[in-house]
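Example 3.2
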Amino acid sequence: MSNIREVNNTFNLVSIEDTVRIPPEKFNEPLEKVALEQLKMKYVGVIDEELGYLIAVTDVKVSPIGKIIPGDAATYHKAVFSLLTFLPKIQEIVEGEVVEIADFGAFIRIGPVDALLHISQLMDDFISYDEKQGILMGKETKRKVSIGDKMRVRITAVSMSKGAGFGKIGVTARQPFLGKIEWIEEDLEKMKSETEERDKKSKE
């Protein structure tokens, strides 16, 4: 059974019921502590096609009454807990930090994962890659992207592979008010100045 509560657009808290195995060598340890360890091993780091990236297990409540299965010295207990998940959605606008630059684009850290901002989706300009400086730069605009820059992007592609360690996210910055945060601020300031100038001329 699961009950999903949205934390924000991409993060959710999901209430889960499951049966947790308590190995015999852990019988002398607190039940909820061992249950938390076992549930983390099972869930954290896994990608679920419906829930997305499973990040953390919290609020574990375990039944003190367990069952024994023939041939297994462990006990099995019913557990209720919360899963913190990250589910990226196509067309959603997110902000993240540039964590890697390559000749084909930049990787943007959004939540627990890195999304690919392909060089063709960076800006309306011819882009060159400077490996020595670790930057991508527009030929006409001279705008640069480097590691540590804050970016606002739109999610354009999400591929979830069930299991652990896989999943791909594609993003774009080639739309109005997307891109490096300081570019957006510059563009907004420019629009404001142009609007004020037009208003001034219309009153003359």
